Amino acid sequence: MSPGTVGRKASHQRADLRLRSRRSKPHNAIALAAILALCSPTRAFSNDLDLRGVDGLNTATVASRDRLRVWDNAQIYGALPVPNMDRTFLQPDGLRMGNYLVFPSVGAAVTYDDNIFAIDSDRRSDVRTDVNAGVQFKSQLPRHVLDFSLDGKLVSFAENEDQNYANYRAKIDGALHFDHAHTISFNMSSLLAHEERDDPLFTLTARDPIAVFEHRAAIGITRDVGRLYGTLSASADRKDYSDATAFDGTPIDQDQRDTDTYATQLKLGYRISPGFEVIGKVRGQKIDNRSDASLDRDSLGFEAVAGVAFEANPLLRWQLVGGYGVRDYRDDALADLAISLVNAEVQWLPTQRLTILATVYRQIDDALDIASTGLLQTGVRARADYELRHDLVLSGVLEMREDDFRGTGRQDDVYVARIGLDYFYTKNALFTFGYEHQVRDSSDDSLDMHRNRFMVGAKIRF
Fold it and tell me: What is the mean pLDDT of residues 307-334?
């Protein structure tokens, strides 16, 4: 379908869609992602090839925001993906506090899990309750950004109380728009998370979730004006894993997984036309592993990827990225890694209410377990979002991937099917429903897993 045809068919809606796009707030997409996360637990420590974000930094400039109104075809033709549609009228208004809007929230999700230990050889079912609470302080400064957030989660099981845990996180995000074309941004976070058994690198001999303390900081400078844009950034990350306990009660030392990661990267892009741009990223990193005396897993890493993002038309968008990744380990007993990296995405908007996103990826996850030096993930993922009504969104995910554990010979084939329904009942209340089926077919038969989870959640926001 040509842009002209799309423009004619959408002419009666165009002005309204433009106005709503301009009025939409960044927290809309963030809120929706948080809602879906209730029904879609994901790994918190993975390293991917997302070229749209840089170390979680706010890379928008005043010039880039102004240009979207006339450069982005989504603004011109109103062809917006379902997750990006404006739902301002279903978002809380917040509490005014000087130059800040405060958004407190509290929620709960109840999950029936028929395999809480994620292993078929010791299959147990239980009912899990997640209670989430948080508060966001979103700045309303005339030009700059300085946001704060605090949140926490309590997880409890009806029968297996030894699996209970509590998480917390504190985060600061800032952006200094010191002129029209440049932004200096930073973020800092400190959190206590718990690695669960569905994490690929979880120590499966451990009985309970493993506590991980993580402290992270990143800073970057962005120039984005006209067609050429780029961000130079640096980050530092420290992970400390608490010791675990085996099923027989013996302690499992996790200190050898503790890591300090220092990274710097440069992201560049050039907009050839409103529907076509060239993108690339170069990243270098140093990992200091505070391991045991028998093995030194310190490494130097390098990744370089490049590709194109383009629109066949406003309803069909592509991102094709490829490159190379290297890991050079200090210990000669460890084989160095040199591997191709891939991230190919296609987004299709067959109707105004339906968005389909398909992804093929190959990436390196540098998080460590007791035996391996990292994880290679190769897979394909498809996601569909359907807006039944403006306050009712149905989503489904299918994923197949191969997890290759470096240095161990273990290889897992993982299959995931997930469906979720989000009901924006009022500005202050929303409900979520979900079902997930997981299968792990491992080269180690004792690690095979079949799992079903049924989830119901609710959230109150102010």
Answer: 89
318, pLDDT greater than 50: yes
**Could you tell me if residue 6 is inside a domain?**
no
Q: Given this model, what pLDDT does residue 240 score?
A: 93
Averaged pLDDT, 239-257: 87
Query: Is residue 302 domain-resident?
Result: yes
What's the domain range around 150? 16-461
Q: What is the CATH number of the domain that holds 41?
A: 2.40.160
pTM, full prediction: 0.81
pLDDT, tens digit, 9 for 90 and up, residues 388-410 = 998 999 999 999 999 998 878 88
Please give the structure tokens belonging to residue 245: 């306990």
